[in-house]
Amino acid sequence: MNVDEFISLGVQNEAKGSLLVKRFVLGDALESMRIVDKHGIRAALKCVGHFYNLIPSEVKGKKRSEALLLLLQDDSQPDNYICMTKDTRDNLRVRLGDTVKVYPCESVKLIQELAMFPIQDTIEGIQVLTREEVDKDFGGIGYDDIGGCRKQLAQIMELVQLPLRFPALYENLGVKPPKGILLYGPPGTGKTMLARAIANETGAFLLVINGPELMSKMQGETESNLRNAFEEAEKNAPSIVFIDELDSIAPKRDKSHGEVEKRTVSQLLTLMDGMKSRNNVIVIGATNRPNSIDQALRRFGRFDRELEMGVPDKVGRLEILNIHTKNMRLANDVDLEKVASETHGCVGADIASLCTDAALQQIREKLPQIDLDSDKIDASVLASLEVTKDNFDWAIKN
Ligand code: ADP
């Protein structure tokens, strides 16, 4: 089947009723295609019947989102490019320039007559999301929101994504997938973000435990809270238990003074030892101080894999800058490479706030032109808003 050039046809303006079908059985990918703007799309329904090469296909986007679409060949499109409407892109949670995979979906029958009913989520194995849920979810963090972590992401694929999604790979070889991973590095390097992205991208249930919060709760309840969290994770597997600031829960037992800490470390050890690898739960611990964690927790079968989330280099900073300015209107004089060179030592969180500061400075500059007594802002002022090189220079200095 030749699928060099296609147009995907979302049924326009009907997106409110469109379904996102998860956990579909997939065939082999036909082709990876890059998304371009919707230019060239013809009205779907009009075309049906006029094109013999209309192919029901499944398009896979990010975060395991999938959509069934009709693909249509269009000779005016370049090789390996696919057009799709904004609704379709939103449903697939992809943006212009992203790559999607297109699969044949030959089991789809030709529809002669179609009746539409309100959505009812009663079909087993099929998850129907409403538009609001999709919108809420769309803001979810994915791997491409994390910059400067290519090496770590490749390792995450092997250590977390594969075991959670395909436990059979490990079972068949007779090895146990890792149970615990320790993310370590200075604050603001994206450890929490990474855990959220893994959960979104794998579709796993995420349970976040904040170390200091857990310890400050009612005395005597810390252990049972921890136990409940692990039970909840097992019930909802595949899941990820993310323990932020693990060092506050599990400090070295010989150094910790409190009984509570000692009991909590033992409880965590017991819970991790009791976890069966086939239960499909992975524990990710994050810390700024890996050396202050109880050694017993870092042994085989516990947090035995370690991943450093370090301070990004210039290339990493540029990636992070690109991510945080993606939706910003930038003036032509902004040179992000130069900004990356001038922000040595900054971590992801610093770069995120630098971008916000630069944008706020632009608003500050425009304030004198805004009539604060009016409800509306002049269209010409809105049109002139763009974050400039000077705004970035100001943000770097302050
Ligand atoms: P940590 O858990 O390591 O302290 P977080 O994940 O909480 O750091 O990061 C805080 C914020 O900083 C994030 O919400 C994000 O906006 C930004 N950030 C941090 N690291 C990165 C990164 N590598 N890429 C993009 N943004 C980042």
TrEMBL record:
GO molecular function: ATP binding; ATP hydrolysis activity; polyubiquitin modification-dependent protein binding
Domain AAA+ ATPase, chain residue ranges per copy: 177-313
One GO term describing the cellular component: cytosol
UniProt KW keywords: ATP-binding, Nucleotide-binding, Repeat
One record GO biological process: retrograde protein transport, ER to cytosol
Superkingdom of the source species: Eukaryota
Family, similarity comment: Belongs to the AAA ATPase family.
Protein name: AAA+ ATPase domain-containing protein
Species of provenance: Exocentrus adspersus
Portion of the parent chain present: 1 to 398 of 673
